[in-house]
Amino acid sequence: MYKGSNNHSVTASSSSSSNTNTNTIPIANAGSNQRVHPSDHVILDGSKSSNSFGGSLKFSWLQLVGGPVISLLNHDEAKTTFIAPSVTVTTILTFQLIVNNGMLIVRYHM
Which of 79, 94, 78 lies closest to 34, judged by CA? Predict the structure, then answer.
């Protein structure tokens, strides 16, 4: 069984030290925690992330810690998927969504 862990920590860092444009930090939204069963098709959805600057966003999903290593499909898109691993006890998997608007990067742990 997979149970998401959402610590709501958001870290922003500038991708350029000489940024002269006024830019706002993109909002990373990795969705809600999920509880699934082994072999379930799981969707991690960052499509509610936003960029008030008006431009497009680039996405990157990473597995941080916990449980077996997961192979994420489409890890560089707003939505990524994986098949929940077979486990014998409740297992917490932690993922990070990184959102980049070309000027600023936001990391969201779930």
Answer: 94
